[in-house]
Amino acid sequence: MALTLPRPHRDDIRIAVGGFLGGLLMWGLGLSPREVTDSLVLWPQRWAVLLPLAVTAACELLRRTRPRFAMLVGTAMLTVDTVTQGSVVTVVLFTDLMYAAVLYGTPAAARRIPWITGLLTVIGGVVPAALWRDPGGLLIGVGVGVVAFAPAATGSVVRDHRDAAEAARLRAEQTALLAEMDRVQAVTAERARVARELHDMVANHLSAIAIHSTAALSIDDPGTSREALAVIRENSVEGLAEMRRLIGILRDRGGGHEPSATPTLDGLTTLVDGARANGLDVTLDTDHGRVPAPVELAAYRIVQEALTNALKHACPGRVTVRLAQRDGTLDLRVTSPYGHRDAPRAPGSGTGLIGMRERATLLGGRFDAGPEDGLWAVRATLPVTEGDPE
To answer: 114-143: per-residue pLDDT in tens?
Structure first.
């Protein structure tokens, strides 16, 4: 299987070509850091300088994709360059390979290379000075530091800044994602709240309208039809008022409060009177003190929806509404005759029970509904914070 080398970055190609051409120009002009007579020059041929120059320049093509390999080959070529007349460009290219090995290499390499080059810098300065007993030996360590440690340390600093910037970018993306999730959840919760309000406010009146309009159409009695039309008109007016209140809530963006009065438990008497006008035999028994506004609204809506369901589904008989406040809770119970009917007096969607359960759950309360001793019972327990009503 053939070895496929990764495509070099275009900037790396520019560095490689520019470095090689610059070194070739200096070679052509005869510019070298060492003379042929220098004792360190073991390969005196003039063309020998081109070999480490060409290989080091070629390694620049791998500075991003194979940084460790490029650094190791560059180190070998720098060693070869020291036994020739030498090229300043080869040394400069090697420093870039050392820098790239730290910047683009593995995290382990990025940690180790600065320590290794720093150790070599100290050894390269202390050992020759100690052996030769000449402070000039420290210059070897300085040379190692400039060629190896300085670019490695620079690469480490740049890598740390790059990683910090990347981490900050990821945190910003996560924050934006969380903000978007919060926004979606808030929109969903608000839509659910509006849906509950719309259902609870309108369903009661529309159910009464449907039932009485059916009676007016099926019974050929002018007096009965007139009574039915009066109830229909009353429920239409009340439903329209409720719709206007809901529209006002939706349009109120800056006040932070509802534009008209929110239903409270004091309005249960009026609610029950309306249910009686719609044909239900309802009794109301309440025993409660002052409770927070959210609890009042939830209790009112649950009673309203329970009476609407009784109007649509209950058998003939008495409907009982009881509210009692005890031990930090408001207990609510609505019972209606339960039995088999051929069909409901008005169609239902099943969302009423869902809305009642959601209202109780949002307040940390409990809700259940079902048959009980021949009756249909709606039960809710809503927590009340004593002494801190809203």
So the answer is: 999 999 988 888 887 777 777 777 788 888
- Distance CA(86)–CA(106), nearest Å, equals 31
3-state DSSP call for residue 254? coil
Task: Give φ, ψ of 384 to 5 degrees.
Answer: -125, 130
Quote the pTM value.
Answer: 0.55
Tokens of 378: 């709606």
Which residue segments constitute the domains of the chain, with CATH numbers given? 10-174 (no CATH), 265-390 (3.30.565.10)
Rounded-to-integer distance, Cα 319 and Cα 272, Å: 10
pLDDT in tens, 282-337: 999 888 888 888 888 889 889 988 888 888 777 888 899 999 998 889 999 999 98
Which helix (H) or strand (E) segment holds residue 158: the answer is helix 150-218
- For the beta carbon of residue 184, count every other beta carbon within 10 angstroms: 10
For residue 326, what is the enclosing H or E element?
A: strand 318-326
